[in-house]
Structure formats: C-alpha cells, structure tokens
Amino acid sequence: MEDGGGHQMAHIEYSRPATDYVMEMVHRFYDEYYFRPKAAFRVVWKAILNRDIPRLYVEAKAFMKLRAQRNKAYKLARSNKTDASTPLNAGA
C-alpha cells in the first residue's frame, strides 16, 4: 500500500507495534540497506555491465527524491507526535 505520494504504508495496524514505529523501521531499512557500500557497488556494477548508466541515473535521482520526501514526512510525523504529547500548560 502507498499513500499516493509513493510512500509505503503499513498494511495492518496492531496495538503494538504502532504504525509510526513500523514506518520508522521501513525508513531505516531503506537507508541502511541501500547505502551499504556492497549494495551500492552491486547496483552500479550491474548498470555498468549492462550499459544501463542512464537508467541508473534516472532511478537514483527518483530514489533520492522519494527518500527526501520520506525524511520530511518522518520528521513531520515525529514533531507532530512530540507536540501532541506536550501538555497544553507546559511552561506556565
């Protein structure tokens, strides 16, 4: 499932783990998996062997754009969660 903006959404909601936790783990997976040197080298090497560098460039550009959107959505969700947990009379 996706939210219309290309972001993957959790298929099922359980009381534990929370949906935002699942989304955080998906976000972390993409960053930790695709930015490993071995994985990045494998992708680039296959593109070189298949003479597919232009396609790799387009896909890498799209991936980085989606990653930036995912980072922004993740940070916004985290800040909204923090704001919602702050008492209304805090600091008064």
Keywords:
single chain; 92 residues; mainly alpha; 67% helix
SSE blueprint:
Blueprint: H1 19-34, H2 37-49, H3 53-85
Short description:
The chain is an all-alpha fold and 92 residues long. The protein has helices spanning 19-34, 37-49, 53-85.
The run of helices and strands is HHH
Strand content: under 5%
Counting DSSP E segments of at least 2 residues, the number of strands comes to 0
Which regions contain 5 or more consecutive residues with pLDDT less than 50? none
What portion of residues is helical? 55-70%
CA-based gyration radius: 18 Å
General shape: elongated
User: Main sheet, how many strands, which sense, barrel?
Assistant: none
Overall structural class, as computed from helix and strand content, comes to mainly alpha
Overall average pLDDT: 78
The number of distinct helices, counting runs of at least 4 residues, comes to 3
The end-to-end distance, rounded to whole angstroms, is 43 Å
